[in-house]
Amino acid sequence: MNKAFQGINRIKNVIFMGTPDFAVPILSSLVSNSIIPTLVITQPDKKRGRGQKLKLSPIKQYCLCHNLSVFQPQDINGEEAIKRIESYHPDLIIAAAFGKILSQEILNIPKFGCINLHPSLLPKYRGPSPINWALFNGDKETGNTIFFMTKKMDAGDIIYQSKMKIMPEDNYGSLSKKLSEKGAEDVLKALSLIDNGIANPIQQDESSATFSKFINRDVRRICWTKSAEDVANLIRGLSPYPGAFTYFQNMEIKILKVKPFPDNKGISGFILKAIKDRGILVGTGSCALLIETIKPEGKKEMSAYAFSLGHPEILRGNKRFNNGKQ
Description:
The protein has 326 residues and is of the alpha/beta class. It has ten helices and 15 strands. The chain is 26% helix and 24% strand.
């Protein structure tokens, strides 16, 4: 049990909602502290990969390993799902990265309401991709916010908020993991506040609200005319998954790790040279970037220098990365 968590008395029956890896430490922390959800709701299994095999969500995998009851409605706001949730008579619903907005009918069910963990300092970056956009924008600080859910996306009153520094070496993967682990502690603190009747929720400042957009291919496509800092921020905000991409001779290449190289400058997207055992130097709208790690289409992740050895034209220079197939 978490040493700082003294348990809860009034909240006896909780339902948990979550789907990806991010949500697993939060659910695991509840279980470790003897808060066993009577029901866990996660998104339906999806077909993935070349073989289109059904893949279980990380939360479902956790539930199967820990003998927790799982429910996977096609429509969380549909009649069947609402009746199922009502039948459990929950005191509280806890959500983390569930991925759907709940109807007012569901929000009205639990005695103490529905709370959500959002990995941002709300009202900044409401929406689906706050960690990515904090990195894209080069933010130096982020955090977690626990709030009472309302019908309006991520706009409910704040119960608890914690801050975290974004380190220069952070990418989406590392920052997501740190926020998830910290979020497990934050949810316990919010639970204690609610259980003791001292939550004192604070209304969000609507005038300060900003929004994070879905990550689609247009967002992921590298524009080499932007500054080295902007390109580097895009790459780390999408690494290791789903990855910012560019094209080299009609081959899609994900760029996973780069380093600014301020003493060099070249034409945007043009390869300046390969540096032995270090990577490929490429021009941007400002200074050069040293590309260190890539994932060519259909291949495993590799060092950029190893890739250059299989493409002598890179070693000769005067080739470029493009925004699309030629």
